[in-house]
Prior knowledge:
Strand order of the largest sheet: 1-2
Shape: flat
Low-confidence stretches: none
Amino acid sequence: MAEDKKNLPRVRKSESMRDKVAKSEDKADKPRRLKKTASAVKKPIQSVSSAVKKEYHLITPQESGFKGFMTKSRRITPRYFREAYKELKLVTWPNRRETWRLMVAVFMFATVFGLLITVVDYGLDKLFKQAFL
């Protein structure tokens, strides 16, 4: 009797529209793993970025009667890094197709240039061997 059940084809029960909607609603309620991870990583990064963007004073101008080096507002990150980050945001990166085209162009140029150097080196080698030996 067990052998008869093995040979029978399995028939899959078709899912009704109501079942499909219920299943999709269950999935919508669960936060996705990537979103959970992104939100967990986001909090410390935001706290660090807010601390980096803040301006600090060694001595507040109201406390002291003098102005100058000690009362200037300061930031933790040097200006060079702030400006470099701004420049990187302005960069337009090539898409995949353009990247492949540029890569092929570089390889072709390197190959042609390598062959040119090889031919010139071989020619000069023969010339100097005949001229000096």
